[in-house]
Amino acid sequence: MFTDIIETRWLVVALGVLASLLGAPFIAPEFYTYVLTLIFVTAILAMSLNLVLGYGGIYQFHHAAFYGVGAYAAALGITKMGMPVWLAFILAPLIAAFAGLVIGWFCIRLTRLYFGMLQISLGSLIWVIVLRWSAFTSGDDGIHGIPLPAPLETINGAYFLNLAIALGCLVAMYFVIRSPFGATLQAIRDNAARCEAVGINVRNHQLAAIVIAAFFGGIAGVMFVVLERSVFPGMLFWSFSLDVFVMCLLGGWFTFAGPMVGAALVILLRTFASRYTEYWTLLLGVILILLIFFLPEGIMGFVSARFKPREPDGGAA
Amino acid sequence: MEFLQQITFDAFLSQLLVGLSRAMILFIVSAGLSFILGVLRVPNVAHGSLYMIGAFAAYSITNAFGSNPAGFWVALVVAPLIVALVGLVFERVLLSHLYQREHLMLILFTFATMLILNDLVKMVWGAEYRSVNAPAVLAGSVDVFGVSVPRYNAFLLVIGPLVALGMWLFTAKTKIGKIARAAAVDREMVGVLGINVSWIFAIAFMIGCVLAGLGGALVAPTLSLTLGMDHTIIIEAFLIVTIGGLGNIWGALIGALLFGVTQSLGLLVLPQFAVVFPYAAVVIVLLLRPTGLLKSVW
User: Fold this and answer.
1) Phi, psi values for residue B45, rounded to 5°
2) Which end of chain A has less Cβ packing within 10 Å, N or C?
3) For residues B239 and B259, is the Cβ–Cβ distance under 8 A?
4) How far apart are the two ends of chain B, measured CA to CA in Å?
5) What percent of chain A lies above the pLDDT cut of 90?
6) Which of A61, A108, A121 should be substituted to probe chain B, the one whose Cβ sees the most B Cβ atoms within 10 Å?
7) Which residue from B45, B286, B298 is facing A118, i.e. has the nearest CB?
8) Nearest-angstrom CA–CA distance, B213 and B60
């Protein structure tokens, strides 16, 4: 595990970041508060993907499907089924987790690229249904102006709720990864055949990872509803999954904080570079290619390699 | 089943032919993707962008000829070559250094390329919708079994099998094709035999690009060209290649037929949800045969 000094160092960094985040909305203009909140949402989405992608080595190619299911479940629960907001917010991640169970159950018997492709098809089925079932989902237009309780109608209300949810998710995901279950998952990623041989049920562990990741993805969907009070079919489109996938690999998919850093970078790049150039995706593409050639473990992979000596027996992670 | 009685034989046949001609374009693009997957082991996410470049290049070439009907035919030849050139530079300068990397990295890398190419297309051609007119020979419609079919669709129905035949002749009869097939199965062994695998990869990548560009040029008269067209095709092509069996050209043909026909026939049954059918077909195929219909080289 870690040496004590690294733990302390990271703890100091974390507390500093937390203190600035708590103070930020009182100092920064509203627009920056909005961007920060969007970063929270996206960071939780990217980190939830990394639970399966980085720690499980599973080709989760349509993670945005669960994000979209969570967001749509919350939105439809409130607007079409008249649920109390909090009930909808609690049910939505559970529905996303159920979607993860169903999709995962089908996909888990397939390997690698085939797994990813089946997942894209199943996720795309959800997307098409949302797009075409206009009577229920409002189709292409999406659902806007979802009524939320008064404190959440302000940007600061959304900011603090999302900050609290994000912190809760971070702690929960950290415990998932550090748990025996998380350790088993990483062992399966590194050598599935050996795990099978010592009696671990590989498929069940992978399925559980998919369900957990879908649950947190669903929470990110709810966070999006808190921030934007709207949902639209693009959230479920497969190419958005690729964006999230990029955030994980950009930040470093073998590290805990990497996807968060990747998400923040992509959102900041999109927000600020797009003011100066309409070709900001070209910039992102160039950054990614440079990264692949020079920092293949992502930004946090590079940073943590600097701070942490390699484990002597070269544990494959 | 009341709705089934409303479907006339003529409507069925005409939808079938529309689906088949759409499947021909899907096949040509997917065959290129499948070939690159098979020989180079690269899941090339940028393949859709190459198809888009083919379509926009066809637009520019046809435009340059003004009202001269030769423009379209020149475009059909030159646009794929332009794409192949772009592909060659890309493969030699960047991609060839990354073959040892794992698939996720290759996906990330080709996705980054897709982002870049998409913006380059925006720089060169702008964000407006563009359209290409087919030459007069291919305008209007012809009768097939008493059903009136747009001439252009009939033309696609001829081109598709010709491309399939060409690919078969290339891989089965030419020396380079045979080496490429061998490299798909065991690249180390091919290298040990003293063959320059590096150039085989470059040629294989170019062939994939030619097919992407040809697909783009062929699709140009059938829809308005937009910057989003790469997103649509790439996902369809990947699904087609997957249900066919990764790296199997004939699998790509079967997959494309399944994809195109289920969608167009689905329009007869459930017009609003027709888009569901190809995805459902993919799900069913993968559940029944987890590595695709035909033999996969992966």
Assistant:
1) -65, -25
2) N
3) yes
4) 43
5) 34
6) A121
7) B286
8) 14
Q: Are B199 and B13 in contact, with CB atoms under 8 Å apart?
A: no
Question: Are B112 and A284 a contacting pair at CB < 8 A?
Answer: yes
Distance from CA of A216 to the nearest CA of B (A): 22
- Is B52 in CB contact (< 8 Å) with chain A? no
Taking only the tens of pLDDT, chain B with its 298 residues reads: 555 666 777 778 888 888 898 899 999 999 999 999 888 888 999 999 999 999 999 999 988 888 788 888 988 899 999 999 999 999 888 888 888 888 888 988 999 999 999 999 999 998 888 888 888 778 788 887 777 888 888 899 899 999 999 988 888 888 888 888 777 777 778 778 877 788 888 988 999 999 999 999 999 888 888 888 888 899 999 999 989 888 888 889 999 999 999 988 888 887 778 888 888 888 899 888 888 788 776 6
Global pTM value: 0.87
| Residue A151 binned pLDDT confidence (cut-offs 50, 70, 90) | confident
Interface pTM (ipTM) of the complex? Answer: 0.84
* Contact pairs from chain A to chain B, CB under 8 Å: 115
**Please, are residues A114 and B242 in contact by the beta-carbon 8 Å criterion?**
yes
The owner of tokens 């070709």 is A279
Of B105, B116, B272, nearest to A132 by CB-CB distance is: B272
Q: Tell whether B77 lies on the interface with A, counting CB pairs under 8 A.
A: no
Burial label for A6, CB within 10 Å (0-12, 13-18, 19+), is middle
Question: Nearest CA to CA, how far is A25 from chain B (Å)?
Answer: 33
